[in-house]
Design goal:
The chain is an alpha+beta fold. It contains 3 helices and 13 strands, in the order αββαββββββαβββββ. A hairpin with a 2-residue loop joins strand 10 and strand 11. The longest helix is centred in the first third of the chain and has 17 residues. The radius of gyration is 16 Å and the shape is globular. It starts with 10 loop residues before the first helix and ends in a 7-residue tail after the last strand. The relative contact order is 0.14.
Length: 180
């Protein structure tokens, strides 16, 4: 099948396309294949540092998982959040099929619109209660909480400011420290 055709794709189409393009990140968002370059070093530094912070903070009942790992967020959406916090029982399978407790995206120039607009729409309908967006170039974290099926911005912390939260579990860090 040619992936240059415009149309509504399935999860099977996504897997077939990924076999052709292992140098790209490919996600399925509401039937549309969304292709972006693999993340750069700054993105991965922030991802790994935040993974450690979260792994130290999660309660025993939860675990932190990092991309690339699929989240089946509906019949026509297979996303790859940069980090997910899921119940500890999630430990096998090709993808996560239940709403994570927390989904985190780390912005890249190519993913900004997807991470700030398209993914929150899908994750909200799927029931992910907590969604964080981290900007590694201008260190900041923006926290969103689910109200109904849409997100409301809860707080924004920039640079050396201290981010502290009790939801979905107690954790604190400085956004600038993630990129140092």
């Amino acid at each position: 099948m040619s992936m240059t055709e415009v149309g509504i794709y399935t999860v099977e189409d996504l897997y077939a396309y990924r076999e052709q393009r292992d140098d790209m990140t490919v996600q399925l968002i509401e039937g549309e294949l969304v292709v972006s370059p693999s993340p750069g070093v700054t993105h991965q530094v922030v991802s790994s540092e935040l993974f450690v912070v979260l792994a130290r903070a999660v309660p025993e009942s939860l675990r932190v998982l990092a991309a690339p790992l699929d989240l089946l967020a509906g019949e026509r959406s297979m996303l790859q959040p940069d980090l997910m916090v899921v119940p500890r029982e999630v430990r096998s399978g090709k993808y996560v099929a239940q709403p994570p407790v927390l989904a985190v995206e780390i912005l890249s120039p190519s993913s900004r619109r997807t991470d700030l607009v398209r993914k929150p729409e899908v994750l909200g309908r799927f029931g992910v209660e907590h969604y964080w967006v981290v900007d590694p170039l201008h260190p900041a974290i923006r926290v969103f909480r689910l109200v109904g099926e849409t997100y409301e911005s809860d707080q924004v912390v920039q640079g050396d400011g201290l981010f502290e939260t009790d939801a979905p579990f107690p954790v604190s860090f400085r956004p600038a420290d993630l990129a140092r």
